[in-house]
Amino acid sequence: MHQSKLRSWRLPVTASVVLLGATALTACSGDGGSAGAGSEDGYEIAVLLSSSQNGYNQAVAKGVQEMADELDADINLTLLDGQFNADTQLSQMETAGVGDKYDGVVVVPFDGPALAAAFPLGNGIPVTSVLNPIGPDLSEMEPQVEGVVSTVAVPAGEAAAKQAEDVVTYCADLDPCKVVLLVGQLNAPLDVTREESYREVLEAEDNIEIVTTVEGNYDPDQSATTITNVLQSTPDVNVILSNADQQTKGAQIALEDAGIDPSTVYLTGGGGTTESIQNVRDGIWKADYINFPVSMGAAAMEQLYNALTGADVESYVNADEVGEIEPYATKETLDETPDYVGEWEG
Q1: Which of 49, 159, 189, 331 lies deepest, with the highest CB count within 10 Å?
Q2: Are 304 and 319 in contact, with CB atoms under 8 Å apart?
Q3: Which residues form the Periplasmic binding protein domain (predicted)?
Q4: Average pLDDT over residues 43-54
């Protein structure tokens, strides 16, 4: 991909400025000019993040930025912080749909079903969604509501089932095989879907005991505390199945603090951070479900631009296929791509 002229930009996880409102970030390629209502002078794009403090969301925004720089147009991006709050993000989407301030929206939904209430937007502008769909069915990737033109994602349940199937393989000779489920947020629709898929696969196996499901909130520190508490009652845990690398990082810390070699436990996460990929290469983690958030953000911006300019739009972009490698990674698969380091840092 063409290197963004603002490629060094990223929002640090410890950013002191919380983007509660609109923060304009970029002036893109071209000679400038004021954007608005799809004018030939450029485009104003709102980028609605589920949380601007979350590394995954920051990586998506980076991809949006890079594609905006690559396109032959003036594109100004404005980031909005959803603060992991469904009501906040719904309000932001409704506001973006009023008047002619924005020409389009890229969104990482916190709650896809709840966000559907904003549609159709009053100004009819196109929207692309990243990571999960907008609408009542989180397994349906084709647009479900009027105004969404493309979804860059994979069905969360299918991805979670594949993670769980790999756990079943690992547990084949263990009876009981004690499994802890470490999900992002216990009440978030996407994480609820993941937990349901984990349980559907694992509960079919007589030798697997699901010890508990705990919340990591996509945060290493919170996850470390949570797993430390679990280990006090179940020190002989065999598997910690997490949907996020930040959480698996916290689980690893908790194991080490408890005097347990993390390589003796099946640790897996989701996201494909540079650290997680190295951990799998080193045998500290057994597997990782690699995401490509920078490439996903770029794909969403590209499809939005296609919609704005009347070009062909891919209504569904399979997020597992936008990266360079097989997303379900083990040490063996990573050995086949020794130079791959991942797209982002958690």
Answers
A1: 49
A2: no
A3: 45-311
A4: 97
- pLDDT by residue (tens digit) across 179-206? 999 999 999 999 999 999 999 999 999 9
Whether residue 13 lies inside any domain: the answer is no
Q: Each residue of 65-105: pLDDT tens digit?
A: 999 999 989 999 999 999 999 999 999 999 999 999 999 99
CA dist 322 and 151 (Å) reads 13
**In this predicted model, what pLDDT tens digit does every residue of 202-211 receive, in sequence order?**
999 999 999 9
Question: Is residue 52 a part of any domain in this protein?
Answer: yes
Cα-based torsion angle of the residue sequence 265, 290, 128, 41 in order, rounded to the nearest 10 degrees: 130
How far apart are the C-alpha atoms of 83 and 25, rounded to whole Å?
18
In a domain, 118, yes or no: yes
CB-based burial, 172-193: b 16+ in 10 Å, e otherwise: eeeeebbbbbbbbeeebbbbbb
Do residues 246 and 291 lie in contact, with contact meaning Cβ atoms separated by under 8 Å? no
How wide is the angle at C-alpha 50 spanned by C-alphas 30 and 140, nearest 5°? 95
